[in-house]
Amino acid sequence: MDLKVSDLSVARGGRTLLETVGFRVAAGRALALRGPNGIGKTSLLRVLAGLQPPRTGRVDPGPDAIAYAAHADGIKPSLTVAENLRFWARVFGGPDISTALEAYALAPLASRPAAYLSAGQKRRLGLARLLVTNRPVWVLDEPTVSLDRDAVALFAESVRQHLSQGGLAVIATHVDLGLDAETLDITPFRPARPRIDPGFDEAFA
Ligand SMILES: Nc1ncnc2c1ncn2[C@@H]1O[C@H](COP(=O)(O)OP(=O)(O)OP(=O)(O)O)[C@@H](O)[C@H]1O
């Protein structure tokens, strides 16, 4: 399955950030989104994931094919690491959690409540969640923030595995992830003149 984005306009807080965004990511490929702070990378990813509507344009396939991982990873603090993963596996109809635990070296932490995890451990749990979603399109916002070098390597290996199984990934990042990814700088999609759209109903902002 390929991801096709066409003629997308992205707004945040009533302001159009990006216009006529278009790209295609083939199955088995990763795309790294680049651009300066505040350009609209997170906002674009939120549109891809269906968390906010585009002003114009299309994303194919829709949110049901997409697993999104961002800063607030939807981790339930009172559940343990294993319980969090089992919960998501049930919600998404995904596989057994053992692969996810192993991929992010989380087995020693399996019975620890998520509330007690360090920032990097939380991030590993949020990324491990992708592996129990069974979804082909990964949309990742700064996935390596808080990760140490070993964890970045685990992440890169996990993405490689996903791609080798026919998945694809769109990753907003400021760092080189060591992946064989194409790069798209979204700066040219900034509107030439500022556009305010006070009437635009930005649901789920
Ligand atoms: N809820 C919101 N309401 C209004 N404006 C917002 C909201 N969230 C973000 N913005 C603004 O929208 C613009 C784009 O933000 P976004 O987070 O998409 O940028 P980014 O490219 O991901 O930045 P960074 O590289 O710093 O993560 C910024 O100017 C930001 O201040």
TrEMBL record:
<dbReference type="InterPro" id="IPR017871">
    <property type="entry name" value="ABC_transporter-like_CS"/>
</dbReference>
<feature type="domain" description="ABC transporter">
    <location>
        <begin position="3"/>
        <end position="205"/>
    </location>
</feature>
<dbReference type="GO" id="GO:0022857">
    <property type="term" value="F:transmembrane transporter activity"/>
</dbReference>
<keyword id="KW-0067">ATP-binding</keyword>
<dbReference type="InterPro" id="IPR003439">
    <property type="entry name" value="ABC_transporter-like_ATP-bd"/>
</dbReference>
<dbReference type="InterPro" id="IPR005895">
    <property type="entry name" value="ABC_transptr_haem_export_CcmA"/>
</dbReference>
<keyword id="KW-1278">Translocase</keyword>
<keyword id="KW-0813">Transport</keyword>
<dbReference type="InterPro" id="IPR003593">
    <property type="entry name" value="AAA+_ATPase"/>
</dbReference>
<dbReference type="Pfam" id="PF00005">
    <property type="entry name" value="ABC_tran"/>
</dbReference>
<dbReference type="GO" id="GO:0017004">
    <property type="term" value="P:cytochrome complex assembly"/>
</dbReference>
<keyword id="KW-0201">Cytochrome c-type biogenesis</keyword>
<dbReference type="InterPro" id="IPR027417">
    <property type="entry name" value="P-loop_NTPase"/>
</dbReference>
<protein>
    <submittedName>
        <fullName>Heme exporter protein A</fullName>
    </submittedName>
</protein>
<dbReference type="GO" id="GO:0005524">
    <property type="term" value="F:ATP binding"/>
</dbReference>
<keyword id="KW-0547">Nucleotide-binding</keyword>
<keyword id="KW-0472">Membrane</keyword>
<dbReference type="GO" id="GO:0016887">
    <property type="term" value="F:ATP hydrolysis activity"/>
</dbReference>
